[in-house]
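Take a protein:
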Amino acid sequence: MTIRTLPTQADTDAIKAILTESGFFNDEEIEIGVSLIEEYLKEGEGSGYSFLFAEEGGVVTGYTCYGPIPGTRFSWDLYWIAVARDTQGRGVGQHLLTATEQAIRGQGGRRIYVETSSRPLYDRTRRFYEQSGYREEARLRSYYAPDDDKVLCVKWWEDGNERTDS
């Protein structure tokens, strides 16, 4: 597996396919995920988005999209992480998450925020974050839809050391 940072026009189709085939995202969410790549292709770093793409044999198998949170000193959002269905369970997501954390820390980031759904479909996703050192920081009731909370998780470091308290 190789990791690259710069999006290409071909990535819009690859990411659309990954998001669609995952079964996790609706049409509007898929459109948003693709639009962030398109925005970067138009504006470059000025878009505020950064990406990592996992590839095997020249085929995109997963990606992350992240960026600093405007108005904060050390806080970053992990906007998207998605892995192709046929490569899930092989460590691609963990590899991408670790590489994203390293990139953020390398740019002075100390906190990474992730939001996800409370629906049962996302149980495995929430466990993935928890096992990776993220802790639930907040829950916004019925945020996405009735009985579908927004779960906000965070991982943070202070003085170069990961915080493990809750």
Remarks:
- The mean pLDDT is 93.
- The first helix runs from residue 9 to 22.
- The first strand starts at residue 2 and ends at 4.
- The domain at 1-65+80-92 is CATH 3.40.630.30 (Aminopeptidase).
